[in-house]
Amino acid sequence: MPPPRLLLPVLLLLLIPAAIAGVPDRYTVRRGRVGVRAGNSRLSAQEYLDPTYPVPRPPPVASPTCVVPVLTHSFGDTYGAPPATAAYAPPADCPAPWSLVSLSFSVAVAGDQYDRVAAVWLDGVELLRTTTAEPAPGGVRWTVRRDVTRYASLLRAPPGGVLSVMLENLVNDEFTGVFNVSISFQFHGAPAYLSGVNANAPATLPKSYFEPADLILPVSDPAGESTGGFWFRLQNASHAGSRLVTIPSNAYRAVLEVFVSPHADDEFWYSNPPDLYIRENNLSTARGNAAYREVVAAVDRRFAGSFVPFPVVYTGGVNPLFWQPVAALGAFHLPSYDLELTPFLGLLADGKAHEVALTVVDAIAEWRVDANLHLWLDPNASDVAAAVGPYRTPRLSIKRRYATHRLDGRFSIRAKRKARFSGWVSSSFGNFTTEVETEAETTSVVEFANQGNNKTVRFKAERESEVVIRAAETRKEVGKVETEAKFPMLLRTVTEDGENGTSVVRANLTHSITVETSAEAEGLFERESKLADEQTAAGWMLVSGHDVVNGSAATASVYRYSDDAGRYERAIDARDGSILSDNVTESYQAVTAKRSSVAAM
Ligand SMILES: *[C@@H]1O[C@H](CO)[C@@H](O)[C@H](O)[C@H]1NC(C)=O
Ligand SMILES: *[C@@H]1O[C@H](CO)[C@@H](O)[C@H](O)[C@H]1NC(C)=O
Ligand SMILES: *[C@@H]1O[C@H](CO)[C@@H](O)[C@H](O)[C@H]1NC(C)=O
Ligand SMILES: *[C@@H]1O[C@H](CO)[C@@H](O)[C@H](O)[C@H]1NC(C)=O
Ligand SMILES: *[C@@H]1O[C@H](CO)[C@@H](O)[C@H](O)[C@H]1NC(C)=O
Ligand SMILES: *[C@@H]1O[C@H](CO)[C@@H](O)[C@H](O)[C@H]1NC(C)=O
Ligand SMILES: *[C@@H]1O[C@H](CO)[C@@H](O)[C@H](O)[C@H]1NC(C)=O
Ligand SMILES: *[C@@H]1O[C@H](CO)[C@@H](O)[C@H](O)[C@H]1NC(C)=O
Ligand SMILES: *[C@@H]1O[C@H](CO)[C@@H](O)[C@H](O)[C@H]1NC(C)=O
Ligand SMILES: *[C@@H]1O[C@H](CO)[C@@H](O)[C@H](O)[C@H]1NC(C)=O
């Protein structure tokens, strides 16, 4: 028997995996194990869901609607394999232009399995980033729908292209879940934006400015089809995913749409302690580098835009029982982020190759990122004239305050970034100056108490952005889009040791995303919209290693969306794998002729 003073550190080390490396973590409910009765244990296939706004209804016109199935594939033991591919061709019976195109990604899976990340690309342009639900014994199925109208130029281009799907999965004696995926597109005719909109007055923006882009270039890994997918897999903060793009010299508008998902040591980046804490406690976890991340886009090494990503909890995260049968916000449909690059056309639109690069501030392995460059082209000219206005690299101001006392600690970070860009583009529509101003502020507090067994995460990211378009000569405002986004998160977990090396983890989580947008374009439309999506979950689980062997959880989700045309609200209460109530309230006014779709802003 060693003396007690030697025993103590050993005991601490034994406690650590449960308390630090293990909370939050990814878990799976192992139904295959005898006696396991946690959460959803029904024996018939159940529909899982993610309450969001239903894909907009097409206008009630007699235009044809076509459903085009593109790919059906079973993702078994696919780790390290190249993507599954299928040929895509535009629908002969539903020719472009379209009022609406939606993508359906349907999955069925049974057995035991972790959550997995998946993505869909068309010729290297990403159309969807998603993660999967964890299965139940009787199987689960779900469908993710995304409005992909903004990719119309790609979808209509003959002769079509190659659809690629990555879903890396491991199948063995223990993890048996095989994901059966089927993907289809639905096309609806008669574009709303071709009718009911005022004719262009001089010195106003063209209608096409707000329609889907004319060309979309991938900023993704060109080797993606033969390797592990088109995403860049970033390993650290200095690792950039970049691609040279040559854009047509008649581009008059550019928007970079960025897709991102964190994995492995950064899956729970918003709750990571600083390395200092890991070092001081001799921990073996690699989940460190504190709890701030920001995705940065650069054009020819110049900072061109950034955002703090919404912290998406995958379905095995925190407590997998929370996400049965309602997935966490964004887990089935990770948000993409639009950065207005029009001010940089003076740099880009010269017919030469330019580098677009993506990096993640403070990243550790690994971040899967890529982007689509949406470009609008002048139909009447082969060149635009353009110049970038006064440029200054926006500084990140970041204050960190770390206090540790053995396994306890408090780590607070306050980060701010203000960016301001402008540039003019003279096309056959006129000479317009685009001013982009964004202000982002993030606060993050991670607290460990009770020897690291009580953990609290308070995270809040806010971002305001304003895009103002002016007639270059008169400085008169002809268009403006303002967006305000907020996403707070509060997570508390308390871990106690159970019998036989198990632990009991109690957790409470509240997270939400609100986005308010107002957009106006002179002579075209004026529009406001508001989205508020919120979840509150509470429960406990008995954990053995990464397996949830008992537990109970309740999750309340409320999704609210309103715009000038109406309101939609869906509130769902779920408990232990079942829906207790699911209430939808909606009201629509007659759609006015002025209403128009605001693409890519
Ligand atoms: C997946 O597809 C295979 C092959 O068609 C089928 O045997 C299996 O039952 C399917 N799984 C589910 C959960 O539907
Ligand atoms: C970052 O990751 C890249 C790619 O794996 C690697 O080449 C580079 O050495 C890493 N840099 C640092 C500072 O770790
Ligand atoms: C960490 O390891 C060092 C060197 O082995 C030791 O001096 C220190 O006491 C350890 N700290 C803790 C908290 O275990
Ligand atoms: C572009 O050319 C077409 C056909 O010549 C003409 O009708 C249209 O007014 C022109 N548009 C602009 C913005 O110059
Ligand atoms: C840890 O959490 C437990 C359970 O909520 C609570 O009773 C205890 O006071 C907490 N300890 C600390 C130091 O916060
Ligand atoms: C466009 O407007 C800017 C700002 O007023 C001006 O400097 C530039 O010369 C104009 N370009 C053309 C081609 O008229
Ligand atoms: C703990 O493990 C022992 C030995 O395997 C077993 O006899 C006992 O039933 C287990 N206790 C619990 C609560 O699972
Ligand atoms: C979770 O919330 C419940 C109800 O408000 C509270 O009783 C419990 O202590 C909370 N648990 C944690 C881990 O904060
Ligand atoms: C799960 O926990 C509940 C509540 O503590 C208990 O009644 C039940 O027996 C447990 N089930 C198993 C399989 O251990
Ligand atoms: C749904 O409506 C019923 C009846 O009004 C109500 O009891 C229930 O709490 C509502 N559920 C939610 C999640 O709002």
From TrEMBL:
Keywords: Signal. InterPro entries: PNGase_A (IPR021102), PNGaseA_N (IPR056948). The keyword Signal applies. The keyword Signal applies. Pfam families: PNGaseA. Residues 1-21 form the signal peptide. This is Peptide N-acetyl-beta-D-glucosaminyl asparaginase amidase A N-terminal domain-containing protein. It comes from Eleusine coracana subsp. coracana.
